[in-house]
Fold this protein.
Amino acid sequence: MMQTSAARRDLALAAIVVLLFVSVTAAFPKFARPGNLAEILDDSAILILLALGQMLVILTRGIDLSIAANLALSGMLVALLNKNYPGLGIGPVLLIAVVSGTLLGAINGLLVWRLKLPPIVVTLGTMSVYRGLIYLLSGGTWVNDNQMSPQFLGFIRYELLGLTLLSWLAIIGVAVFAVSMRYTVLGRNLYTAGGNPSAATYTGIDPGRMQCIAYTICGAIAGLCGYLWVARFAVAYTDIALGFELQVIAACLIGGVAIAGGIGTVAGVVLGCLFIGIIRNALPLIGISPFWQMGINGLVIVVAAVLSARRREQKRAILETQAA
């Protein structure tokens, strides 16, 4: 029943995304050119990866407001590393980015799990801490493209079958998540822990531990995206990706991930990211400032929260009727 409902929701969202794309293309035919479509995917790749990580956290009834700050701190760390040791190679850079992000995500998870602190309070606090650490690490200075090695900048720009390596990383990430969430024990446990924590406890699943794992995985992805962001935009500074967590959360909610936990699909999250990606690329074409997108993201979050609350009330009413 739940899978059927999710499939219908994803199908409806897919229809909306297609309708949006067709509408923009009708007004601006060049929008549908293969090169522009590849650019939209490239532009949405980091959002897709981060939204997949955020989905895990929301599924377990958490929220990660520090995801963009984690990205920024990890990105600055590897940018400074490359600046001082340009011959180190791309392997150590990727490893350090992922490890640093994993540790930052684990801090969130442990605080929520072991100290039983509200996720929104924990990640709001660590968001500020991580942003402050960026300033301490960099001394407030920028790392520009002329201070980065060609290998550092060129790795994600390598093209295969018309798509950059950045886009392929997003595609691989989607495939891995789709299989993991559907066919692995960890994926099923994450859904169970968020859907019904009490029942999960009775079956031997620790909801707090699942939350910690979700935050840790989310952190690892954010760390990787720190390198991807810096390499793509060829600059690292204190305010990297400032406010980007709103887009990540909005993509999840548009994609049908329930704030109350336990509900959400990989397909829905990807569609939510593509919806935002199309809007982000279409706004300049119709003469609307991209800064309006923050307002749009905020509106989306509010509307999605209201709809999620209504669905929760409807579900509760159905269960009470069946019990009677």
Notes: The CA atoms of residues 190 and 210 lie 6 Å apart.
